[in-house]
Structures are given as C-alpha cells and as structure tokens.
Amino acid sequence: MRFLLDTNVVSAPIAKKPNSRIIARLKELADQCAIPAPVWHELTFGCRRLPRGKRRQALEVYLQDVVHASFAILPYDDAAAAWHALERARLERAGRPAPYVDGQIAAIAHLDGLTLVTSNTKDFKHFKDLDVVDWARPAV
C-alpha cells in the first residue's frame, strides 16, 4: 500500500464533472490505495444525509460495491490519536489550527507511511512529516 485517499479523491468518479486525471490515477493505482476510517465516515454520512431517492441509492451502491469492495479502511487508533494530539497542539501554538478530521486523516497517513492523496493540499501542508500529493494536477 502506498496511498491514502481523501474524501474528495474517492468522490471524484461520481462528481458531476469528474476530474480525468484523478480517474486515470485511481484506475492505475487502486490496488495500492486505502482510505482512512474518517473518510469512510464522511462518505457514508454524506450519503445518509440525502433524501431517499435515485441519487442516494446510486451513492449507496457506489460506496458498497466500489469503495468498500476496492479499498481497505484503515483505523484511527490509539497511536494515530497520540500523533494527532501532538500535531494539533503544535499547530495551535503556531496559530495554524487544523480541522479535527484532517488531523485524523493526516495521523493515519503518517503512521502507516502512506502518501495522502487530496485535492485540498493546503489543508494538510502544515502537518509535520506528511507526504501529500494532488492527483488532480498535472504530474511534474
């Protein structure tokens, strides 16, 4: 496993305007990817907030038959919580508090030695020793 996917990357294939770069990278590297438990929460919560109907049903099928079937879901455990607490305190002292869930995702990526794949690299740039990449941008 090499990559940990953020919510915006996992959601890309079902976006109204899917990003072709993300889709291509997912097809190429899916077997090297996982998702963190907080992303699974965001995806399922977002789906369950929708009213019953075709859109929600399509999302439920995508989440179960594609996402859950394709990617391991990595836990936010005690080691991740400890790293997250240290980083959260450090960032707050530096005047750069980060959203709680971003810290959870960063902790899982860091502790598992994975590159975090997100379209929101700015949300993760201040975390220490975290490798972050944006598959939506052209490769350099």
Features:
alpha/beta; 140 residues; five-stranded parallel sheet; Rossmann fold
CATH class designation: Alpha Beta
Q: Look up the CATH topology.
A: Rossmann fold
Low-confidence segments, ≥5 residues, pLDDT <50? Answer: none
- Corresponding CATH superfamily: 5'-nuclease
So how many helices?
A: 6
Strand content: 5-15%
Order of helices and strands: EHHEHHEHHEE
Shape: globular
Given helix and strand content, the structural type is alpha/beta
SSE blueprint:
Layout: E1 3-5, H1 7-10, H2 20-29, E2 33-36, H3 37-49, H4 54-70, E3 72-74, H5 78-93, H6 100-111, E4 115-117, E5 132-133
Parallel strand pairs: 1-2, 1-4, 2-3, 4-5
Helix pairs in contact: 3-4, 5-6
Characterization of this structure:
The protein has helices spanning 7-10, 20-29, 37-49, 54-70, 78-93, 100-111; strands at 3-5, 33-36, 72-74, 115-117, 132-133. It is of the alpha/beta class and 140 residues long. The chain has a five-stranded parallel beta sheet. The radius of gyration is 15 Å and the shape is globular.
